Amino acid sequence: MAERSPETLISVEQVEKKFFLDTETVDALKNVNFTIPKQSFSIIYGPSGSGKSTLLNTIVGLEPPTSGHVVIEGQDLYALNADQRANFRARTLGMVYQTNYWVNSLTVLENVCMPLFLSGYSKKQAALIAMESLEMVGMTKFAKKRPTLLSGGQQQRVSMARAIVANPDLIVADEPTGNLDTKNGDMIMNLLSDLNHKLHKTIILVTHNLEYLSLSTHRVQIKDGTAAEDDGSYGLTSEQKKEKIKRLQETLLKQKNSPGKAPTIAEITSLLSGAGSPAPNNQDKTTQAGIQVNKSQASVDGVSQKPKDVA
Ligand SMILES: Nc1ncnc2c1ncn2[C@@H]1O[C@H](COP(=O)(O)OP(=O)(O)OP(=O)(O)O)[C@@H](O)[C@H]1O
Ligand SMILES: [Mg+2]
Q: Are 246 and 226 found together in one domain?
């Protein structure tokens, strides 16, 4: 079973999820055990149909497991009833999905205000906080527009603003870049990365896109309903792990400040694994965010699918 520690934010314990259909039973999650460390950038990855969304929905209290427990900061989520869980969600986390759900009759600003209305803020207070949130994602000038009139990338930025408006410690995102082109996808990833580095938010991201694994500090690979944990730092003390994460963050900051000198995925991976400088490779490709991708590394940790954005 996964071991809880003071550094643990979420503990997933012996979770099973079965869907009972007319003619068959789907074992979507099979004895899943792992922890999500506080302030980590955790990525859940795996092939289509492997159980990623089911797992994420279970973690946030939307999908009761058939058996097992999800414990967030000591609270057994499914010991609460559905209303209490909704309340817990509203206080604890912000969510971003691949497809956005908007109240179409409301403006961008009003949609971003929604979580604050639920928390009892007045209209005026909520509008001020929501504008600040829109500013963080560079979307203030669209405040009075209807969200459905915006491009996919712009809508995803507004969705991020809505997820962070109530200042939750945990941001959960299910394939937030799934419908976006590389440029907009990288921008969303940079926003998530900033929320993790600068504001110390815990991020849980579900993605197919293995290109983004290099941004994570912790990974959960899921295959056919079974999960395996990988923090990229086996055999290290917690001090060494912290040092490694610090170096990774410095590298990412450098990358942001000088896009022309972006580290390659191989360099970031070598930082994570503690190895020396990687061998130069001519096959690298630089994405819009300045992340360099080596096509030959498209299969990371045994997952055979290719990153969506790599040509
Ligand atoms: N509500 C449901 N009823 C029945 N089966 C379901 C339900 N939700 C998911 N499943 C099944 O559970 C399994 C895992 O589905 P899930 O949506 O979690 O996969 P995923 O890894 O998120 O896939 P994708 O990458 O395509 O989004 C699949 O076999 C799916 O058909
Ligand atoms: Mg899914």
A: no
Residue 20 has pLDDT above 90, yes or no: yes
- Separation in Å, CA 183 to CA 64, 69, 115, 180, 292: 36, 38, 28, 8, 13
Query: Poorest-confidence range of 82-86, 106-110, 194-198, 274-278?
Result: 274-278
| Ligand 2 centroid from CA 40, angstroms | 21
Ligand 1: which residue has its CA nearest to atom 20?
A: 49
Please count the structural domains in the chain.
2
- Decide whether any atom of ligand 1 lies within 6 Å of the 26 Cβ: yes
212 and 276, same domain (yes or no): no
The percent of residues in the chain predicted with pLDDT above 70, rounded, is 72
Tell me which residue range forms the domain holding 202: 8-231
Say whether both 18 and 53 belong to one domain.
yes
Residue type, 40: S
* Residues with a beta carbon under 5 angstroms from ion ligand 2: 53
Among residues of the chain, what percentage have pLDDT more than 90? 57
The pTM of the full predicted model, rounded to 2 decimals, is 0.76
Residue nearest to atom 17 of ligand 1 (CA): 53
Degrees to nearest 5, angle at CA 206 with 306 and 96:
130
Ligand 1 centroid to Cα of residue 204, in Å, is: 18
**Count of residues making up the chain:** 311
User: What CATH number should be reported for the domain holding residue 49?
Assistant: 3.40.50.300
Average pLDDT of span 270-290 = 38
Q: Say if 278 falls within a structural domain.
A: yes
Spacing, Cα 16 to ligand 1 middle (Å)? 13
- Give yes or no: residues 221 and 180 share one domain: yes
Query: How far apart are the CA of 265 and the centre of ligand 1, in A?
Result: 30
Give 295's contacts (C-beta < 8 A, 6+ positions apart). Answer: 283, 285, 310
